[in-house]
């Protein structure tokens, strides 16, 4: 991942900022790991998602005719 980020900036793997890119990716992944437990609990508690607002009315009509 660090190599891809450096390549997007036009730098090579031999660049001096390679180690700092690795550290920033590791810290970002650690933040995601720490927050993943709390967000999965919130997602499992929220079962009141209105699916009708996520699909266009055209597809609702199409699905209703097949039922």
Automatic annotation (TrEMBL):
<dbReference type="InterPro" id="IPR011993">
    <property type="entry name" value="PH-like_dom_sf"/>
</dbReference>
<dbReference type="GO" id="GO:0070527">
    <property type="term" value="P:platelet aggregation"/>
</dbReference>
<dbReference type="GO" id="GO:0033632">
    <property type="term" value="P:regulation of cell-cell adhesion mediated by integrin"/>
</dbReference>
<dbReference type="GO" id="GO:0007229">
    <property type="term" value="P:integrin-mediated signaling pathway"/>
</dbReference>
<dbReference type="GO" id="GO:0007160">
    <property type="term" value="P:cell-matrix adhesion"/>
</dbReference>
<feature type="region of interest" description="Disordered">
    <location>
        <begin position="33"/>
        <end position="67"/>
    </location>
</feature>
<feature type="compositionally biased region" description="Basic residues">
    <location>
        <begin position="58"/>
        <end position="67"/>
    </location>
</feature>
<dbReference type="InterPro" id="IPR037843">
    <property type="entry name" value="Kindlin/fermitin"/>
</dbReference>
<dbReference type="GO" id="GO:0005178">
    <property type="term" value="F:integrin binding"/>
</dbReference>
<feature type="compositionally biased region" description="Low complexity">
    <location>
        <begin position="34"/>
        <end position="43"/>
    </location>
</feature>
<protein>
    <submittedName>
        <fullName>Fermitin family member 3b</fullName>
    </submittedName>
</protein>
<dbReference type="GO" id="GO:0007159">
    <property type="term" value="P:leukocyte cell-cell adhesion"/>
</dbReference>
<dbReference type="GO" id="GO:0033622">
    <property type="term" value="P:integrin activation"/>
</dbReference>
<dbReference type="GO" id="GO:0030055">
    <property type="term" value="C:cell-substrate junction"/>
</dbReference>
